[in-house]
Design goal:
The chain contains 15 helices and 16 strands. The chain is of the alpha+beta class. It starts with 7 loop residues before the first helix and ends in an 8-residue tail after the last helix. Bound molecules: adenosine-5'-triphosphate and magnesium ion (MG). The site of magnesium ion (MG) has 2 residues, from loops.
């Protein structure tokens, strides 16, 4: 099986940017199980979707209940929200992060275990929250310095408008049945709108000439869509209306959107979302409007230039220790520094070896400073400090002054309790 593997360093710095952003919008984290009952996904995502019909990892447990490794987060979020009364007389702004599993053909940007960060808001009817989530994405692209990424939006209307549109679409595709691939023939019977979501290049000409939904849009959805566009226009967010944009999951209505890049070849959708007002009620709870999106972390990492981002992973300082006495004392000094400067990332050398070999490791670690504690320094209650990334001459600092020195050199705040 090909599963994704992202380096912790790149993965965590972009995850950090996203988590900071989610806090800026006051969204709260929800931790969801990785395994749920298969029935949940069938009911939420829809039988005729790629996910349910061919991509799920399902198995029976000891009670012969069919379970599935989650292929996406929305279904579990809705299930948890209903079970714990999160939608009762209150609104929710939630986010989650974690691995998702789909049995797809592995290729660049498409893994069988990949990671999503998803956002879901419950209890909001208006287009303001749809816009908030789009603005959130736009802010994230800015933070990550991503410029080649564009927004496409559409409205899928209410189920009534989709039903009217569905008839026209069935007529159109039925009259071109000879040009439909096997998947589309099945979809024509079961869920014709999803033909528009086909990834088959051979189908694209036929799809691009198909009738669009906008003519069948109900007044309420049209007003909602106009409201969304108005906020996006006011915020200076560029977008393209793609009247054939549908989502691969069945439960979407009204707003749908995708953020797409040309830099990732065929797997260009980095983030996708929309409104799913009917899903909570579909699971037997009081009707609750909802809107959300999910972004693929591997695709996002592929796009991000980490050299442009602040390094929040490398140690600030690498502590070199020469001799047994220095080792014991150095460990304690490092502990004191962690007390005094909680923001300091200090890596104490372990495993002995010559100072020369320790310097090599210090350099490789990405640390800005080497703190050297050898016999001479030990005898004088001092450390030698070398600047590894600049020409500043080395200096010697008393132990009692090291915290102040590091605090001001590295701009790290001291712990006021110490
Ligand atoms: P696609 O059209 O690329 O198959 P999708 O419509 O199936 O995507 P969603 O279910 O909306 O995707 O998932 C949201 C995002 O998760 C996608 O835009 C993409 O960035 C990411 N994603 C989905 N499937 C995979 C996968 N197999 N590997 C890596 N990332 C994925
Ligand atoms: Mg897919």
């Amino acid at each position: 099986m090909t599963f994704s593997c992202m380096t912790l360093r790149t993965g965590s710095s972009s995850k950090q940017s996203i988590k900071t952003l989610l806090k800026q919008y006051a969204y709260q984290e929800i931790r969801l199980p990785i395994v749920e009952k298969t029935e949940l996904f069938k009911r939420s995502i829809g039988d005729n979707t790629d996910i349910v019909s061919k991509e799920m990892y399902s198995f029976d447990d000891r009670n012969e209940t069919s379970l599935t490794l989650r292929p996406e987060g929305t279904a579990g979020c809705v299930r948890a929200g209903i079970e714990h009364g999160l939608f009762h007389n209150q609104t929710q702004r939630l986010w989650y992060i974690g691995p998702m599993f789909r049995h797809e053909r592995p290729q660049k940007g498409r893994q069988r275990q990949f990671h999503q960060i998803g956002v879901e808001a419950f209890g909001f009817n208006g287009p303001d929250i749809d816009a908030e989530q789009i603005l959130m994405c736009a802010r994230l692209w800015k933070t990550l310095n991503l410029t080649d990424i564009r927004l496409e939006i559409n409205s899928l209307g209410t189920s009534e408008s989709r039903a009217n549109y569905r008839k026209v679409l069935v007529d159109y595709f039925s009259s071109h049945k000879d040009q439909l691939d096997d998947d589309s023939l099945v979809r024509l019977e079961q869920n014709p709108l999803r033909i528009l979501d086909s990834k088959n290049p051979a189908m694209q000409t036929l799809i691009s000439a198909s009738p669009t939904l906008d003519e069948y849009l109900d007044t309420e959805s049209a007003e909602h869509f106009a409201g969304l566009k108005q906020i996006l226009n006011g915020a200076g967010i560029e977008y393209k209306i793609n009247p054939r944009l549908v989502r691969g999951l069945d439960y979407y209505g009204k707003t749908v959107f995708e953020w797409i890049t040309d830099q990732l070849g065929a797997q260009g959708t980095v983030c996708a979302g929309g409104r799913y007002d009917g899903l909570v009620e579909h699971h037997g709870a009081t009707a609750t409007p909802a809107v959300g999106f999910a972004m693929g972390l591997e695709r996002l990492l592929e796009l991000t230039d980490f050299s442009q981002m602040p390094d929040t992973q490398s140690p600030h300082a690498y502590l070199l220790l020469s001799g047994d006495l220095a080792m014991a004392r150095g460990m304690l000094l490092a502990e004191q520094l962690r007390d005094q400067l909680p923001g300091l990332r200090i890596l104490s050398h372990c495993g002995g070896g010559s100072l020369k070999s320790q310097f090599k490791k210090a350099d490789k670690s990405g640390a800005q400073l080497a703190l050297v504690l050898g016999e001479d320094e030990l005898a004088q209650n001092e450390m030698t400090i070398k600047f590894l990334r600049s020409d500043v001459p080395q200096t010697v600092v008393k132990w009692s002054e090291i915290a102040d020195f590091l605090g001001s050199t590295l701009s790290i705040k001291a712990n006021s309790n110490k």
